Request: fold
Amino acid sequence: MRWAVVIVAVGAFGIAIYDQYDKGANYQRVDARISSVNDQCYLEKVERGVITKTTFTSDLTRCETAELLRKEHPKWQGYHVMHKIEVRVVYVSPVDGVSHQSSLEMSYFPSGKPLRAGEVFPVLASKTKADKTRMI
Reply:
């Protein structure tokens, strides 16, 4: 059993190291301009059994509605409000020097503050593929 834990830990460490290598070797930091932000929410509850884990979720809705349902509606009490944020950005690719558009998905706002259209947002742009980006 100990060996299984060690193998999983070494595997996770290896993946983290490779991810950092990939970001440094294959991507370049660029400033992108946010063209739109779509923040939607859903309600989620996780029930853990002895062996099983069951996740219950609602459909996507406006965040204000999700928060109100969680507080007021008996069916949704005990659920957590989760975000699904899509940020569309425009950036100049280091590959061809041309403007490209990309979409990034996140489950929380960086630095805890909402993003707005028109703001500058740093992203990682691929050094070899003009239309590929990653979060920093």
